[in-house]
Amino acid sequence: MNSQSTGTLKKIVGFHMDENRDWVADLECGHQKHVRNDPPYTEHHWVTTAQGRLEHMGQELSCSACRLISSR
Ligand SMILES: [Zn+2]
């Protein structure tokens, strides 16, 4: 479908805040990904609102943890 050159695409299944009050996306693979710092200075303002998070449920993010596993 696509090259997946930046990681393995995984769907968002939920969100939570970490201890630094940064939003973290829970991915379907069980890994987690900060929504704010990829790439640097790209802030996802939608993540700060319940409506925005709802709208992005199921969106695919590249999971670098999965990429590490699959490239082994
Ligand atoms: Zn993963």
Please describe what this structure looks like.
The protein is 19% helix and 31% strand. By secondary structure, the protein is of the alpha+beta class. The chain has a single domain (8-70), classed as Ribosomal protein S4, central domain (OB fold (Dihydrolipoamide Acetyltransferase, E2P), Beta Barrel). It has a four-stranded antiparallel sheet with strand order 3-2-1-4. A hairpin with a 5-residue loop joins strand 1 and strand 2 (23-27). The model has no long low-confidence stretch (mean pLDDT 83). The site of zinc ion has 7 residues, from helix 2.
Ligands in the structure? Answer: zinc ion
**Classification by helices and strands:** alpha+beta
| Assembly form of the protein | single chain
Q: Can you tell me the CATH topology?
A: OB fold (Dihydrolipoamide Acetyltransferase, E2P)
Q: Count the E strands.
A: 4
Please identify which CATH superfamily we are dealing with: Ribosomal protein S4, central domain
Rounded to an integer, what's the Rg over CA atoms?
Answer: 12 Å
Assign the CATH class. Mainly Beta
Largest sheet report: 4 strands, antiparallel
End-to-end separation: 22 Å
Order the strands across the largest sheet as they lie in space.
3-2-1-4
Low-confidence stretches: none
SSE pattern: EEEHEH
